[in-house]
Design brief:
The complex is a heterodimer of chains A (about 270) and B (about 50).
Chain A lengths: L1 H46 L4 H13 L30 E3 L4 E3 L1 H13 L3 H5 L8 H11 L13 H15 L9 H5 L4 E3 L2 E3 L5 H8 L4 E3 L4 E3 L1 H11 L10 H13 L9 E3 L1
Parallel strand pairs in A: 5-7
Antiparallel strand pairs in A: 1-2, 3-4, 5-6
Chain B lengths: L2 H24 L4 H12 L8
Classes of the chains: A mainly alpha (about 270), B mainly alpha (about 50).
């Protein structure tokens, strides 16, 4: 009996040793799932009082108010569905526009409209775009809000649209900067998070949809609405890349690629983010 | 073919591949060329140190 106990002791010890990491791993997983659940509850609670609604209302006012040297409103702006058609337009951007011969996202298209309809210069149209309560922030929030419930589409009929999506994909995987970082470094692995923030795998359609359907979004940490373009520019800053120019092709190409990844997602923007 | 001749042929072949790749990278019609051009234009405010 005693010899059996002596033989069993190392076996029990080995089992215990193997069991500890397993228990720790299971505990970590459960803790992660619980944290995610709590974060989602917190977001749900805040949904009813999204401060982006104020920006949306201001954007509507700016959209319909005559201003600039030509004293015109933006109501005749063509966002891709024809002059004055705003409903669902954001869900189909970026797309190619024949008048500018460019693939444009919402912000670059708004600048085109402000210049052509209202007579503003490019500098005037983009003035203070990054500031809280800027005209651009309000207009983007308003137009995006008019796509609530619309399915995301990625325009690819024009060769330039396909080219930009391919450029965006190449850029997504391009490692640059002193940290040798690419977008894919963080956004190509499932179930990751940085502190309390989920870091979505943008190569998985469901994850890409979860992201793209929420932007533009009110950022609690910043106290203002950020557009998708602004989010991407800040991602590049976080990767320690040089700062790209606002409305530049690199940023629009990335947007075009992400839009393609998120096709089919139902727009819920303006969202609410950390 | 002698050893020397085959080495020269290999060198010439490698040089041709390298030149083709280098030209393709600068050709705006290729994706790589377009990407380089896009990066140059989009980040033109950045200083070389950045």
């Amino acid at each position: 009996m005693s010899s059996l106990r002596v033989r069993a002791q190392p076996l029990l010890f080995a089992l215990l040793l193997c069991g500890v990491p397993c228990t720790v791993a299971l505990g970590d997983e459960a803790q992660d799932a619980r944290a995610r659940e709590e974060i989602n509850k917190y977001r749900e609670m805040l949904k009813d009082g999204n401060p982006a609604e104020l920006s949306e209302a201001r954007g509507e006012e700016l959209w319909t108010t005559a201003t600039g040297p030509k004293q015109a409103s933006l109501e005749q702006c063509d966002l891709g569905l024809g002059p004055g058609k705003v409903d669902g337009a954001y869900a189909k951007l970026p797309r190619h526009f024949s008048d500018t011969q460019q693939v444009q996202d919402l912000e670059s298209r708004l600048v085109t409209c402000m210049m052509s309809l209202q007579g503003l210069t490019r500098e005037q149209a983009t003035e203070g775009w990054y500031k809280a309560d800027s005209r651009m922030e309000a207009l983007v929030t308003y137009v995006a809000g008019k796509s609530r419930g619309a399915k995301i589409e990625a325009a690819s009929a024009h060769p330039e649209e396909q080219q930009l999506q391919a450029l965006g994909e190449a850029l997504f995987f391009r490692r640059s900067g002193p940290l040798d970082f690419s977008c894919a470094t963080c956004h190509s692995q499932p179930d990751k998070r940085i502190r309390l923030q989920e870091v979505r795998d943008l190569l998985i359609p469901a994850d890409a949809q979860a992201v793209l359907t929420q932007w533009p979004a009110y950022r609690l940490s910043q106290g203002q609405v950020w557009s998708m373009e602004r989010r991407l520019i800040d991602c590049m800053r976080q990767m320690r890349w040089p700062e790209p120019q606002y409305l530049s092709e690199a940023v629009i190409a990335l947007e075009a690629f992400l839009q393609k990844q998120a096709v089919g997602g139902v727009m819920q923007a303006p969202g609410l983010k950390r | 073919m002698s050893n020397l001749a085959s080495r020269r042929a290999l060198r010439a072949l490698l040089l041709m591949f390298w030149m083709a790749a280098a030209f393709a990278a600068d050709d705006p019609a290729s994706l790589e060329g377009r990407l380089n051009e896009t990066m140059r234009r989009s980040f033109s405010n950045a200083t070389p140190e950045e």
